[in-house]
Amino acid sequence: MTSRHFPRPNRAALALAVLLAAGTSGCGIGTTGPVQAGAPASGMQRPGDGAGTVRLYFAGPYGTRPVTRRTDAP
Asked: Where are the domains of the chain?
């Protein structure tokens, strides 16, 4: 039987690969705190409210449009 000899990467190449991976993992994106984004969500119903409505979204030439419709049963 013959055994094949696979070359092992030297330490310099391994160190370079680790430095490149660590250097590109941050991508220059800094941390931020809370951002003001406007009013809180509206139109939400409480579970078990029994309002009997459903929210539908219609797609049109100017984007999507939410519409609330009544249902027969909650």
From this structure: 11-71
